[in-house]
UniProtKB/TrEMBL annotation:
Name of protein: Alpha-methylacyl-CoA racemase
Keywords: Isomerase
GO molecular function: alpha-methylacyl-CoA racemase activity
Key word Metal-binding present: no
Amino acid sequence: MANPLLSGIRVLDLTRLLPGPFCSLYLAQMGAEVVKLEEPQGGDYARMLSPELFTLVNRGKKSVTLDLRQPEAVAVLKVMVSQADVLIESLRPGVMDKLGCGYQELKIINPRLVYAALTGYGQTGPYKDRAGHDMNYCAYAGLLDQSGAAGGPPALSNFQSADLAGGALTCALGILAAVIGARASGQGTMVDVGMLDGTLALQALSLATVRTLGASAARGGDILSGGLANYSIYACADGKHVAMAALEPKFFLNFCKTVERPDLAAMPLAPGPDGAALRSALEALFKTRSRDEWELLLADRDCCVSGIYTPQEALDNPQVKARGLVRMEDGKPLPELPIKFSDAAGAAGDCPALGADTSSVLAGLGFGAAALAALRASGAI
């Protein structure tokens, strides 16, 4: 890796499954040393539930087994904290305190520590102790209500908006801001991220609609594009679909010129019944060609129409390939860091086996052979 931007930053990652590991993956891809702390028996649940998912989000990390229910393991964690920059955990509020390694205790050991707690509902409020998953946070944040076809029921997406965007990326942003602050002041902080919080913050257009209209819009009816025929999805002759996002009139005019249909440009660009004639005309038009034929015709005409791809098809998109967003390993896709730096490279190495780095990491912290043997005998590692 050329000039990794986070070189020298050591991260202790106590999280599992998806949101926390995805957060620390970004840090690892930017050069941080990420030490994944896992329970000795089984480790991260994702190892068993979905080995491929585990591989995707835990590349480039080290794995150390540590059973924090053992006081000896808590003592080891405190030694690790003394030489770390960041600790990330996703346990329910108060659990780390009960284990004897909450933020108030750890910051005494290392005042510059950035302690990130990534939970469903944050550290405060009446929901803080509730269990939850991505769909619950999307439901409470109003996102699920806005997902799906206009006039239909809410639809569950295969994209984990709350886990990844509301949680993982929000947490990574908070960590980076806190690390910068700690380097400047010598004082760390606790980063409290709730996935509900981050997901609600993503609702910029929905909240702008509330501010404008005084109430939420019906699904597909936001203040910018709701119900417009020139901002919609259309079926093609082959049963596949295209996304027309010709929101600005100039883009829609470019489309009309390309398809030689000036009559479409004369129809009202309006939501609801006023735009019904245009929508019907576009539905009929798009069914005259296949998705790929529309792509070929419209690709360079500056009209904001694109084919809707499956995730597998997206891997072969020429733009995705040109940007080096995915590399293939043993015939399987591995996404690269989606951020480009002018003078730095981002990458992540192999996925660690459970406990593969326990001995080497602890030896680097001063634990000798006898101490390691005693820790193994106690079940702490």
